[in-house]
Amino acid sequence: MPKRCRDHRDSDLPQKRIRTRNDTGPIDRLSRLSNELLLHILSFLPVSSLNVCQRLSHRFHALGGDSEIWKRQYYSQWVRPRARRLANIRRTTLPAKTDYSPKVATWFDHGHLAQEGNWKRQYRLRHNWSKGLCRVTEVEFPQPPCSPTLVRFCAGVVFTADSAHGLRAWTTRDSACCLARIPLSAPSKSSMIPTALAVSQIQDKIEISVGLEDGHFSLFVLNLQTSQLDLQSSHVGSSDAAITAMALSLPYLMVVSQHKDLTLYNLRPGSHQAGETEIFEPRQVASLKADNIVAPMTLSLRVSSFEIVATIVYSFFHIGCGWSLGIQELRLGKDGQQLDSRLATTVDSQYGLRPLQSRKRRHSAESVDTQPPITPGAPSILHQQPPTSMSYSHPYLLTSHADNTLTMYLVVSTSDSLFVQGGRRLWGHTSSVSAVQVTNRGKAVSVSSRGDEIRIWELETAISSLGRKFFEENGVQLNAENKEPGRIYHDLGSVNVQELTLPIGFDEERVLLLREKTGTQLLECYDFT
Predict the structure, then answer these.
(1) For residue 189, is pLDDT > 90?
(2) Which of 199, 251, 433, 467 is most enclosed, with most CB atoms within 10 A?
(3) 107 pLDDT exceeds 70?
(4) 307-311, 411-415, 511-515: range with lowest mean pLDDT
(5) What is the 3 state secondary structure string of 417-460?
(6) Nearest Cα to 440, choosing from 391, 389, 473, 503?
(7) What angle do CA 264, 267, 273 make, to 5 degrees?
(8) Measured between alpha carbons, how far is 501 from 419 in angstroms, rounded to an integer?
(9) DSSP assignments along 397-421, one per residue
(10) b or e along 271-285 (b: 16 or more beta carbons within 10 Å of the residue's beta carbon)?
C-alpha cells in the first residue's frame, strides 16, 4: 500500500522530541524542598498562580490550598484596602496596626470571621460577591394560596407563612426540603391570614413572630439542632386591625397596625436571660399613634445593654423636593421609661444642605441664631412618585424608585441628636426597581419589578465618597452561570407588574427571591459559594 502523502498542515504541528540516553530533561528543584520552604514561596504568588499550582500534584494541591496563604490573600484584597479607604475619609495616616496580623479579631469589622477555618472558601465567596457570580436553584411551592406568601430569611433558614400551609421552614442547603411546618390556627378554627412576619435568632433557636389579619400575633420557636417548630404563645394585639409590619429583636417586638398604631412589646417581662423560653404575657412598653402613614414603610429595632431604640421610617410629600422620608426614633430604657423621642427627615439631604445638627457642631462657638440663614435652591434629589420600597439597617437607609434608581442616606443617631446626611442617587437598573434590602454592613440587594435584573451594592464605598464622584454607582449585576437567558418573561405586555413585586433576603453566602410567574410561586436561591 502506498504511503500517505505528507499533508502541508502537518508542518504546523510541533516536532516530536527524540530522547537520547544522556537527556535528563528539566530539573525538578521544587519537589526537593521542604513543605515549609514551599509554603513561603507560594505566599508570594498571585491568586491565579496559586490556582495553577493546585493542579500540579496532590502535594501542591494541599500546599496551594493552605488556609494561612489564602488568609493573607483575603487580607491584602479586602481588609487592607478598606483600612486605607477609611484612613482617607478621616484624613489620617494609615496606622501601623493595619499590617497583616494572623489574629482576625484585630481586623476592623471582621470579628465575625474569627472562627473561619477555610480561607480559600471565604476568599472565593467574597470574590464571587464582588463580581456577581453565583449559581441558582429553583423550588416550586405547592399550589399558591389566595393570600400572599410572606417570606423571611434567618441563619440559613427560609420561613414562609400563608393561610393555606401555615408556617413552614426551609433550609437553603437543600431548598427542596421542608424542615418543619405548623398550622397558624387549630384545625377546629377557620384559617388565619398572615399579614406580617418577623424573625430573630438567639443561640441555637430562631423565634418567629406572625402577625394576623385580626390584629392577633403568634410566637413560634424553631430549634436549629432538632428542626422542631413549635407554637410558643398567641396574643391579642392592642388593636383589632390587621398587623401590617413587625420588627423583632428579642425580647422586644414592634408592631404597626392598619389603624396606624405603633406598639412596642416586651415579650418576656421580668426575664433577663437570653434564650429563656418560659411563657410570659407580653407587656406593652410604648405606643404611638400616627395620623397617616403612606406605604411603604420600614421598622428597625436596636437593643443594647442599656437602652432600646425603636425606629419607623415612612414617606411623605414635600412641596419643594417631592417625596421625602421621615424618621421617628423612640429611645427607651430597659425599664420601659421613655428617654427621648426624635424626628428627622431627608429634606435637607435632598437639597444638598448640611443638617442643622451637623452645622451646630461645626459652629459650636457661636449661637445658632447668629448664623446666616441658608436659602436652599433647587433640590438635587427630586422624587415625583413615592418610593416603591425602602430598607433601613442602621446607619444605612436605602429606597428604590420607579425611575430605575435607588437613593441612599446615612442616618446619624447619637445620644443627643438625630439627623440624615449623604443623600445620593444610585444608577444601574434598566427598569423600575421594586424591592431593596440593606444590612448594617452596607451590603445591599435590589430587584427590578420584572424580576429579570438583580444588582448587589457595597454602600460603604458610596458613603466613603460623599462629596466626591462615586465611581461604582452601577453596582454589580448578579449573573447566575447556570441560568438560561430570557427565562423570566418574554412578553410582559399583559402581566400586572404589581404581581411581580419580590420579597428578598440574603446573607453572606446567598440571595433569596420569591418569584411569582404565571400563577406559580418559585423560591430562587442564588448561591455564591
Answers:
(1) no
(2) 433
(3) no
(4) 511-515
(5) CEEEEEEEEECCCCCCEEEEEECCCCEEEEEECCCCCEEEEEHH
(6) 391
(7) 125
(8) 31
(9) EEEE-TTS-EEEEEEEE-SS-EEEE
(10) eeeeeeeeeeebeeb
